[in-house]
Amino acid sequence: VRRVGLGLVFKEPDGRPGREVVEVKSGSAGEEGLLEKGDRVISIDGTPIANLSNQDLMKAVKDVPDTPALLVVKKRDSTLGHVTLHRKATVDDATAPPSDAPGTSSSAATDQVE
């Protein structure tokens, strides 16, 4: 299965600006951009993501491979910055078992919301 995205797993909205990153997939655009668990993505390509539905959030992160995504990120140390990531195409094994973590999407190789 071929997927395009940033390789980030987001927490559900919690009333604070943005969405918390709960996982950064190995080898992903997010990892290359030095995003870490606990960072908060405030916006993607100028669109605030705190109140986006999960479906709209996935649309915001997925696009054509190698296209840039401009993120406003609040790091765990409270610094605010801009990060440009290039969406990556990934291939995952369609026979891989789904994640058994509660509230996660079944695809381990794409952007998710938990």
| Total DSSP helices | 2
C-alpha Rg (nearest Å): 13 Å
How much beta, percentage-wise? 35-45%
Q: Report the sheet with the most strands, covering strand number, pairing sense and barrel closure.
A: 7 strands, mixed
Distance between the termini: 21 Å
The tally of strands reads 9
Order of SSEs, N→C? Answer: EEEHEEHEEEE
Overall average pLDDT? 79
Q: Kindly name the structural category.
A: mainly beta
Percentage of residues in helical conformation: 10-25%
Task: Identify the overall geometry.
Answer: globular
Poorly predicted regions:
93-110
Summarize the structure.
It contains two helices and nine strands; from the N terminus they run E-E-E-H-E-E-H-E-E-E-E.
Structure characterization notes:
This protein is 11% helix and 35% strand. 30% of the residues are buried. Strand 4 and strand 5 (47-48) form a beta hairpin. The chain is mostly beta strands. The chain contains two helices and nine strands, in the order E-E-E-H-E-E-H-E-E-E-E. Strands 2, 3, 4, 5, 6, 7 and 9 form a seven-stranded mixed beta sheet that branches. Strands 1-8 form a two-stranded antiparallel sheet.
